From TrEMBL:
InterPro entries tied to this protein: Nucleotide-diphossugar_trans, TPR-like_helical_dom_sf
Name listed for the protein in its UniProt record: Glycosyltransferase
Length: 357
């Protein structure tokens, strides 16, 4: 019979990790926790529950951390959970799957809380979390499992609190310090400015990230292949920092050059949606612009060859956002239709190693 394992990476979150472990303990053969610096008492508590706690070293390469945890597990099936997640239903489906030869990647439903509340009409998303032996992650900042096996919706359901996902990634202090040191030696270096802006954006410091993206835009020639990464990073940071006028100006300046980019169309939809949410008066034209932008993503499909491309923006992530748009508009049936469509696209869109947004 195939062996199964729970595989987690954490730097703490003791109570959350314990909840995740207890939810799956009866249904897996082992539980492997890669410990990136949790307090000793937390690690001791996890061992008491039955985990094998493996000491690890934190890295800015998120995929490397994931892969270290998978390397430590000796299982045919690996169930990957974040600290804030737990098994909610699908126990029989999980049991049946792990008895099978590991010849597919299992997609699980994730029900995320909104405002701390789980509701039946909140959209549900699929993610590859049941990985056969040998499947590994790629992507330094936004890791994604890479595989050429079929993906199968297996009927396992996870619930997730609306806390910051994978907080073991969150300590970017060292990487940021090194980038500042490098910029002191090479001020105005376009690549370093982009790396620092990305680091700040991933840390949700959008105002600071915006300043460095602005500098990177000035330093990066329009013919440089990294220009796309700078533009989409800047558009995301400007929008999330509330610098909507700058975001609109950037979109106007770059839209023609990147009309083949699902990432730009996706972030344009995000921008129009943010403008809609912050508008003091009804703005049906913004609803149309957001919807049209995300539909454009689906027309374009995935474009992994573009620098800075995020896997899913040309498929399931755009469909998820359409689901959220219609949820906000009070159109529950249409919202769920797009949530279901996102699940279908997740099944049919192969993983190519790009980051997941």
């Amino acid at each position: 019979m195939a062996r199964s394992a729970l595989v987690m990476v954490t730097r703490g979150e003791a109570a959350l990790v314990e909840r995740a472990m207890r939810s799956v303990r009866p249904f897996v053969d082992e539980m492997v926790i890669l410990d990136l610096g949790a307090p000793a008492e937390a690690a001791d508590a996890w061992r008491e529950i039955g985990a094998r706690v493996v000491p690890g070293q934190w890295s800015t390469d998120a995929a490397a951390c994931r892969n270290a945890a998978l390397d430590a597990a000796d299982a045919d099936w690996n169930l990957v959970l974040e600290a804030e997640e737990w098994l909610a239903s699908g126990i029989d489906a999980l049991r049946l799957l792990v008895e099978r030869p590991p010849e597919c990647v299992g997609l699980v439903e994730i029900h995320r809380a909104i405002g701390g509340v789980h509701e039946a009409d909140h959209p549900r998303y699929l993610a590859p979390r049941l990985l056969p032996r040998g499947v590994r992650y790629e992507g330094a900042r936004h890791e994604e499992p890479v595989f050429d096996l079929p993906a199968e919706h297996v009927g396992v359901v996870l619930r997730s609190d609306d806390v910051e996902a994978a907080r073991w990634r969150a300590d970017h202090t060292l990487a940021e310090a090194l980038l500042h040191q490098a910029l002191a030696v090479r001020p105005g270096d376009a690549g370093l400015l982009l790396d620092l802006a990305d680091e700040l954006r991933v840390s949700a410091r959008f105002a600071e990230a915006s300043e460095h993206y602005t500098a990177a835009l000035l330093a990066t020639p329009t013919v440089d292949e990294k220009r796309h990464a700078v533009v989409v990073g800047a558009l995301e940071a400007y929008t999330k920092a509330g610098r909507l006028r700058e975001a609109v100006a950037l979109l106007d300046a770059e839209a023609t050059r990147w009309q083949h980019s699902p990432d730009l169309a996706f972030l344009a939809g995000d921008l129009f949606f943010e403008m809609l949410l912050t508008s003091a008066v009804p703005a049906p034209e913004l609803v149309t612009l957001a919807e049209t932008s995300w539909l454009r993503c689906l027309d374009l499909g995935e474009r992994p060859g573009l620098s800075g491309a995020v896997h899913g923006r040309g498929s399931f992530l755009a469909a998820q956002n359409l689901g959220v748009l219609f949820l906000v508009l009070g159109q529950g049936e249409e919202s769920q239709r797009w949530a279901d469509r996102a699940g279908e696209l997740r099944l049919s869109t192969p993983s190519v190693g790009g980051p997941l947004g």
